[in-house]
Amino acid sequence: MLRKTPLAAALMTIVAAPVAAPLYAQTAPQAAPQATAPATPATQSAQAQAPAAADTAAPAEGSTLPAVRVNGHADTSGDFQADTSSVGAKVPTALRDIPQAVTVVPKALLQSQAVTSFSDALRNVPGITIGAAEAGQIGNNINLRGFSARTDIYLDGFRDRGQYYRDTFNLESIDVLYGPSSLYFGRGSTGGVINQVSKQPNLKPRADVSLMAGTHDRYRATVDVNQPINDTTAVRVNAFGQDIGTTRDVMKSKDYGIAPEIKFGIGTPTEVTLTALIEHNRDQPDYGVPALNGHPAPVDRKTFYGFTDDRTIQDVQTVSARIKHRFNDNLTLRNQTQFSHYGTEARATNPAAVLTGPLGTSTALTNGNYTTLPLSSLYVKLQGKNRTINDHSVYNSTDLEAKFDTGFLKHDVVTGVDLSHETYSNQTFTATAAGLPLNTLAIVPLVDPVYTTRPASTRTVATNLAESSANGIGLYVNDTVSIGEHWKVVGGVRWDRYEAAINNSINQPPYATQTNFFTSVRGGIIWQPSDWQSYYVSYGTSFNPSLEALTLTNGQQNLPPENNRSYEVGAKWDLLGGGLSVTQSLFNIEKTNARTADSTGGYHLDGDVRVRGYQLGVAGHITNKWQVFGGYTYMDGEVLKALDGTTGHSLANTPRNMLTLWTTYAFTPNWEIGGGPTYMSSRYAANTNYVSVPGYTRWDAMAAYHAKKFDIQFNVLNMTDKKYYDALVPSDGGRAVPGVGRTFIGTLNYRFL
């Protein structure tokens, strides 16, 4: 039998599916008739809370009713399926009209999985891998389709550039757009962007409390209160507090946050929304375990390399104002402003070199740390990662959406301007214990290190203070042209001016400034032969300045931005009467002038990095009782050209195969069960390919009882207690953070209204 590659098989599937789907739609189990379909237990609970919700939330006279998908379910609050997203077009747009792959992770899925952290939520997104704390980077470090997306995380359309551990307590969904997208987002977005969509005030009263407890000392409480003030105004407050332990020794997080919001003019031509996010984290960053013989050291996964008084304290304050004015059905003006401050005080420790002896003068292993010595003869040098970070940003965005006809062509034009001002300071410190080499806190056994507080003899000295700032302006226009019933052409262009400067008190260069001009483009053709299928081809570009993250490696200050381009072809289908969405795409992303270092340490734009692959996504109802959400990605990431000796190597933290699947079944009106696997193939910790991490399959499960006023839910994470490695760090040859062990979680959700 001829063996097909994943790309060839994907291409055949895209071609064959339009033929098979109508047949499948005729023979597959159908949902109940649209007007009378029974709801799932989750939607039953939502309906019971406010039977008069339709009357309460009715728009004011003369306003335009929102679009509604009729898919056989009376309420979509518990659905895994999404119909629209603003991440691919700046304004709410049907997913079928976005000529790029988009994954929407809804609140209902996160609740079903008992997910509370941003990183855990993203495990549902094919093509995303997690990076751990590294060097000056802490908080959520994400790779999207093989490229870093640390500065490509957004909150309600604005860049959320702070280095902190995000929570899901105030999120309605997480929307992921794949591929270079500087047209709408400016600098960055090599692999795509990740947008957090906040919960919004509405005219439906609610008061929910959720209590969670689990093994390994996991405790959490959340509150969600929404209160209409009058017919057009509502207030909503979400809050959480948690004390979370893990299956790793020592590691613990104590966090809390509140997000108040008020919305005026609901359902009227002019809506004004004021929001805030205040979050405080006291966490212990996990720098993982060092490598040995080309793989993570074979120590107990609970082993922690650090001190019991390590901590990272983070404070986040974000306030925003949004004004939307609808002149008529065809003309809408929006303006948004956001102010953010992120403060971090970190005193952390990371396992650096693996040593052949207990002395600071012992030989350090390199290049994968290959050795024939027994584990009991090896030691690990612990280094301090102390720093104080302050990060401020001010963003303003104005866009105008106009719909009009020119002959037989129908236009939907979005044009706008983005303004930004950002400042960043990072004061680093060197911590050295008495009698040890500079920046060494301890030398501990590789196996069973003793857990103590940081040595009393530690001497901490302030080192480099980096202070940087940036100003940006972006002008863009995008037009979606409908040609008849079945064709759409999407095209847009953006011009950016990005000016950034940095001052270093000790490091080189002492001062550097850059002013970058860049023009980004986006184009796509969409063919929609029927209301349940959509096919597209697209092209997009983006750019990455050296000072993109307001940090700079010496030698890169005079380099122009890196350029990225993407080609994508895909299909989107709404099957089973619209209840089940299936998406597929083939993609090619290439960074054509990647920064690369030569043998002397000088940097050049002579590199070339490419990721090509295939992606499949599925979300929605197979029957009115059976839901599913999942995806598969094949990624072939390769360094095509580099001056540092990595030409031909696999791209770091980019597995060939990733699969995620979650399904639930309501087998009675009250009882629901669910579960599914997460699979990831082997991957390398760094482009050097010295250290590889094995693949794994993790299984999770849940069972829930739904009543009118409450839900009781039990989740099991990692049912088989599989030992696997979750996040990767390229530093020190490559480190890996062990994933969570078997964990049991119980949740009680109570609805007062």
TrEMBL record:
It is a multi-pass membrane protein. It is found in: Cell outer membrane. One of its GO terms (molecular function) is signaling receptor activity. One of its GO terms (cellular component) is cell outer membrane. InterPro entries: Beta-barrel_TonB (IPR000531), Beta-barrel_TonB_sf (IPR036942), Plug_dom (IPR012910), Plug_dom_sf (IPR037066), TonB-dep_rcpt-like (IPR039426), TonB_sidphr_rcpt (IPR010105). The lineage of its organism: Bacteria, Pseudomonadati, Pseudomonadota, Betaproteobacteria, Burkholderiales. Belongs to the TonB-dependent receptor family. It comes from the Bacteria. Keywords: Cell outer membrane, Ion transport, Membrane, Receptor, Signal, TonB box, Transmembrane, Transmembrane beta strand, Transport. This is TonB-dependent siderophore receptor. Residues 95-193 form the TonB-dependent receptor plug domain. Residues 280-718 form the TonB-dependent receptor-like beta-barrel domain. PANTHER family: BLR3904 PROTEIN, FERRICHROME IRON RECEPTOR-RELATED. Residues 35-60 are annotated as: Disordered. Residues 1-25 form the signal peptide. SUPFAM superfamilies: Porins (SSF56935).
